[in-house]
Amino acid sequence: xxxxxxxxxxxxxxxxxxxxxxxxxxxxxxxxxxxxxxxxxxxxxxxxxxxxxxxxxxxxxxxxxxxxxxxxxxxxxxxxxxxxxxxxxxxxxxxxxxxxxxxxxxxxxxxxxxxxxxxxxxxxxxxxxxxxxxxxxxxxxxxxxxxxxxxxxxxxxxxxxxxxxxxxxxxxxxxxxxxxxxxxxxxxxxxxxxxxxxxxxxxxxxxxxxxxxxxxxxxxxxxxxxxxxxxxxxxxxxxxxxxxxxxxxxxxxxxxxxxxxxxxxxxxxxxxxxxxxxxxxxxxxxxxxxxxxxxxxxxxxxxxxxxxxxxxxxxxxxxxxxxxxxxxxxxxxxxxxxxxxxxxxxxxxxxxx
Length: 353
Hints:
The protein is of the alpha+beta class. It is built from eight helices and 19 strands.
């Protein structure tokens, strides 16, 4: 999926760090530089680039239920249709935009190329090396030490990054002391605030499975259907104040101001992604057959408020860290997910659905 999110998310980041380069307009040149947008849109000049390495597509495959599905979600959610959800405001029913090209995803390493980059495989990073408080390189699991001329960039994902930092002496003093690691930089938030856009799946039986409307059907024959995930529509919604604010107040134990940035109506709290397949079914006990009789709808929290943690299990670099995702820990997340699932059900309860 190729998605920017809403402008207010970026503008909030800019306000928090006091740097307008993190605002939507501050990052827009980078967004444009990264993409070759799939169509020149009228009414949104300057939003997209047309000569970048990532080639986007939107609703590129002609799945038969698309028009009915969109009509169902437009009626069931009362959201507007938006041809370009990546144009600063995603709150809408919109075409599903992908970074697939010719049936293949475009990871950064392939899209941008690795010319001038030396890639070391089977090279586990034990820790970052320092000169005083300045990072100067990294020590690998084979004992090799690599030193840099300019800077060290740690980009190991939401789980491995805090682990590497703590193994290097960057983190909360008490956590490091448990494992006999000398603290080099006091950074108490390292390993905290873990969160993810967690999702629930809903499954719906198809009224006319003989028409080949879902993956697994013998009539699901068009080879282009396999050139991406079986989806063509994405729905992003904001959870209303009257639903979200009381739940936040229960979590906080105090009044939440109407002006709280989490309550902005332009923020996309939840997402729905209908798929012409019974995806996620193998992870359940429902025993749903993959025979074209069922479609699914993913309901996702885009702005979860529950927070988990990543901690060290030991000072051994290759030991798995202790991960506590703490999903669905807040009443606000419960309220948002219920709202999201009900919106999806309302869409499928329409005549079109």
